[in-house]
Write a structure and sequence with these properties.
The complex is a heterodimer.
Chain A (H helix, E strand, L loop, with lengths): L11 H33 L10 H34 L9 E8 L2 E6 L8 E4 L1 E5 L4 E7 L4 E4 L7 E3 L5 E5 L5 E7 L11 E7 L1 H12 L8 H12 L2 H4 L23 E2 L4 E2 L2 H9 L1 H4 L12 H12 L3
Parallel strand pairs in A: 1-5, 4-10
Antiparallel strand pairs in A: 1-2, 2-3, 5-8, 6-7, 6-9, 9-10, 11-12
Helix pairs in contact in A: 1-2, 4-8, 6-8
Chain B lengths: L1 H16 L25 H13 L3 H4 L14 E2 L5 H10 L14 H13 L32 E2 L2
The chains are: A alpha+beta, B mainly alpha.
């Protein structure tokens, strides 16, 4: 699993951005060194106070100042052009590729794979699976406040704005897991709003997609079956949906195939039975202010719910 | 001397800005007598109630307070009483003629928040408690800018 870094690019676009960053950094560092050297020289060899320069020396001085001013303007023009041409190359999304609608919400990500065929539309949360080596167009939406989608290894930032659609093209060169993060302060739990991009070989991606489209089979006995009953008949189903059950809430993350996900609550906890139990016991102790309320459940009921949810592979 | 005073005033202003921060309780309000009293004067709880109002599709019957299939909520007529405890009971247990019971659909805290918002819809709360923003585009005035409805009437 890669830790996110804009200086560890794994796609052509991220490489262009990293190159731009190093170009700016190198040139600015060189200029800074020259300025410091000139300053040191001036301190070592001060001119005499009140002494008038001979005319040829005055002329030389004004030529140097003029040349440096022109050089400054030239460097600024080069910087502007470099950043303009680099970012302009990302501006136009390709609408004929795989399209994924990403909706930022306080404080999680809804992910919906678009398709003209309604039976192929797939909804999940906080994880995006993409095929390697092929551009994927993200359609960015927000339901409440402004968020920003940023997976530094793959691409620069793009804001998600309520009432407006923005686009971003993602492409990963090699298979891997790339962490992303909301990059626009969006409230109390902004820091716990992570997203994971799983770049997979096209065949593995297709297998994942087919599996994720299938409804979960409901357990027919034991603790998991009790958990399924609780999920549908208690508060859970008011906000969460699970394909294959009667739970069809639309305001919280879709939990179909939840057991196969890497994390709980948008990257807050690793997805283990112990962590899920902790999360369900009091979400507000883990992620204060999140819209997931504390539901009063007995310990055995909670254990049944954990068994059910972790079984949704 | 005056610059020391200016510094002191600046520091005091910075520190004072941290005072009176609205208290938010995330795992349920402490018990009060009568119950629910704290929710109705808390801007955070009223705002959360407003979100639940949309999320649980209350608009389906009550619209944005003007009513439709269900009764209006922003006027001063309350069939089952306009106190937060009475509204809470209407939401929790449901009422005849179609109002469903939410007791296993929402947590107790959420029902109180929703009741606090419903009570606030006719602006029966302070201006700084009523919500001033909407998650989605809204054609009407924000709750905090609305006129207060006529004084509460008990029942029909």
């Amino acid at each position: 699993m890669n830790w996110q870094s804009a200086l560890d690019p794994h796609s052509a676009n991220a490489r262009h951005l990293a190159d731009l960053f190093w170009f700016f950094t190198a040139l600015c560092a060189a200029i800074w060194l020259l300025v410091v050297a000139a300053l040191l020289r001036a301190i070592r060899h001060p001119g005499l106070a009140g002494e008038q320069d001979p005319p040829e020396r005055q002329l030389r001085k004004s030529r140097i100042v003029g040349a440096l001013t022109a050089l400054t303007v030239l460097i600024l023009v080069v910087f502007t052009a470099a950043s303009f041409y680099t970012t302009r190359s990302f501006a136009w999304p390709d609408m004929n590729t795989l399209r994924i609608k990403v909706t930022g919400q306080q404080w999680w990500w809804q992910v919906e794979y678009r398709n003209h065929d309604a039976s192929q539309v797939l909804t999940t949360a906080n994880e995006i699976h993409i095929p390697v080596g092929r551009p994927v167009t993200l359609e960015l939406h927000a339901t409440d406040v402004i968020h920003s989608f940023w997976v530094p290894d793959l691409m620069g930032k793009q804001d998600l704005i309520p009432g407006r659609t923005n686009y971003l093209t993602l492409q990963a060169d090699h298979a891997g897991v790339y962490r992303g993060q909301c990059a626009e302060f969006c409230g109390l739990e902004h820091a716990r709003m992570a997203i994971w991009v799983f770049a997979q070989e096209p065949s593995a991606f297709e297998a994942w997609r087919r599996h994720a489209l299938m409804p979960n089979t409901m357990p027919d006995g034991g603790a998991a079956a009790k958990g399924a009953y609780i999920f549908v008949h208690r508060q859970c189903a008011s906000c969460h949906a699970i394909n294959g059950s009667d739970a069809a809430g639309q305001t919280g993350p879709d939990l179909t195939h939840f057991g196969a996900r890497a994390t709980i609550a948008a990257g807050t906890l690793h997805n283990t039975a112990a962590n899920l139990d902790r999360w369900l016991a009091d979400p507000q102790a883990v992620k204060p202010g999140a819209n997931m309320p504390k539901v009063d459940l007995s310990a055995p009921d909670r254990a049944a719910l954990v068994a059910f949810l972790e079984g949704l592979k | 001397m005056s610059s020391a005073w200016a510094r002191f005033a600046l520091l005091a202003a910075l520190l004072l800005a941290g005072c009176e921060r609205e208290k938010r309780v995330y795992s349920g309000q402490p018990a009060t007598n009568p119950a629910g009293e704290l929710y109705q004067e808390n801007a955070y709880d009223v705002a959360q109630g407003k979100r639940l109002y949309t999320w649980m599709n209350c608009t389906g019957c009550h619209a944005h307070g003007g009513g439709g299939i269900g009764p209006a909520l922003m006027d001063n007529r309350w069939i089952y009483g306009g106190k937060i405890q009475q509204i809470y009971r209407s939401i929790r247990d449901g009422r005849k003629n179609g109002m469903p019971a939410w007791k296993n659909r929402l947590t107790d805290q959420q029902i109180w928040q929703l009741a606090a918002y419903v009570r606030s819809m006719g602006r029966y709360v302070r201006k700084d408690v009523a919500p001033s923003r909407d998650d989605a585009l809204n054609s009407g005035k924000a709750e905090s800018r609305r006129e207060r409805s006529a004084p509460l009437e008990p029942g029909r």
